[in-house]
């Protein structure tokens, strides 16, 4: 038993080193730099500046757009994942959905610039239909559309897995008891796949909070988020202290979201334990 325990601990060493070097250490560095101003002097002024109207507006904007991206991703992904579980070659279709996520994000952003541009394919189709050229690029619509497109695979996967793990006999039982399709979905399917929905929302909402490349290329900096502010402070103004301060609050927000969306798994485990007792 001692040999097995020592072997198990030896296998944990690479994981612990990875976590310390690439998770704990960067977070500590960000917290450390947040206490210094642009001239390198120790200060708490960065945290005071964060609560000014400008940064509060950025925070609200970041959460609002992240919320919209998550909601639209969920509305598209849940029916798609449900249909995938009913198709014959579901693994192949799932692979086709995942494939675009292997393409570089910058390449996909430039592809949408070509599609939504003034002389792009979308405006060419609108000209044929008779609507005329529209300003699609550098708008909220284009930003949300491209963001949803990018994040959809990360929402579909956990929902698909949750649907696959669900016992189909429960659906048959609900139908036998006279439940309609909508009632079956609302009372049986959705509650049983809620863990997948939470995981998908977590996988989309958290990175959507810190988007900055898409806001620049697709939204044309009309959409200002905390991710954009961090990029500006680190690369333009060279105010690493303020950029780190914003990053600290983003980390705190992400930790809170992970805690809230992860509570459902604990409840499921506790419920299983109670049943076992």
Characterise the protein shown here.
This protein is mostly helical. It has one domain: MetI-like (MetI-like fold, Orthogonal Bundle). 78% of the residues lie in helices and 0% in strands. The chain contains 13 helices and no strands. Helix 12 (226-235) packs across helix 13. The longest helix has 37 residues, at 240-276. It starts with a helix and ends with a helix. It is found in: Cell membrane. This is Spermidine/putrescine ABC transporter permease. InterPro entries: MetI-like (IPR000515), MetI-like_sf (IPR035906).
* CATH T-level topology: MetI-like fold
Measured as a percent range, the helix fraction is over 70%
Assign the CATH class.
Mainly Alpha
Number of strands: 0
pLDDT averaged residue by residue: 88
Highlighted features:
277 residues, mainly alpha, MetI-like fold, 13 helices, globular, disordered C terminus
Question: Topology of this protein?
Answer:
Blueprint: H1 2-33, H2 45-50, H3 53-86, H4 90-98, H5 105-116, H6 121-129, H7 140-165, H8 168-176, H9 181-192, H10 194-209, H11 213-217, H12 226-235, H13 240-276
Offer a concise description of the structure:
With 277 residues, this protein is mostly helical. Helix content is 78%, strand content 0%.
């Amino acid at each position: 038993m001692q040999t097995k325990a020592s072997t198990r601990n030896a296998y944990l060493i690479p994981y612990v080193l990875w976590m310390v070097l690439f998770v704990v250490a960067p977070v500590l560095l960000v917290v450390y730099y947040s206490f210094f101003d642009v001239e390198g002097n120790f200060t708490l002024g960065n945290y005071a500046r964060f609560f000014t109207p400008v940064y509060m507006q950025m925070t609200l904007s970041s959460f609002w757009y992240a919320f919209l991206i998550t909601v639209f991703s969920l509305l598209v992904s849940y029916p798609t994942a449900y249909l995938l579980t009913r198709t014959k070659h579901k693994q192949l279709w799932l692979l086709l959905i995942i494939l675009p996520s292997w393409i570089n994000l910058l390449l996909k952003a430039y592809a949408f610039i070509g599609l939504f541009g003034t002389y792009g394919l979308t405006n060419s189709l609108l000209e044929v239909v008779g609507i005329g050229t529209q300003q699609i690029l550098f708008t909220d619509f284009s930003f949300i559309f491209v963001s949803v497109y990018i994040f959809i695979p990360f929402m579909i996967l956990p929902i698909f897995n949750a649907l696959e793990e669900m016992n189909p006999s429960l659906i048959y039982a609900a139908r036998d008891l006279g439940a309609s399709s909508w009632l079956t979905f609302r009372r049986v399917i959705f509650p049983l796949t809620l863990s997948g929905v939470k995981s998908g929302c977590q996988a989309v909402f958290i990175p959507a909070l810190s988007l900055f490349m898409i806001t620049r290329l697709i939204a044309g900096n009309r959409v200002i988020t905390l991710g954009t502010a961090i990029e500006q402070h680190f690369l333009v103004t060279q105010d690493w202290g303020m950029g780190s301060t914003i990053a600290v609050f983003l980390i705190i927000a992400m930790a809170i979201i992970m805690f809230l969306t992860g509570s459902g798994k604990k409840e499921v485990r506790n419920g299983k334990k109670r049943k076992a007792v």
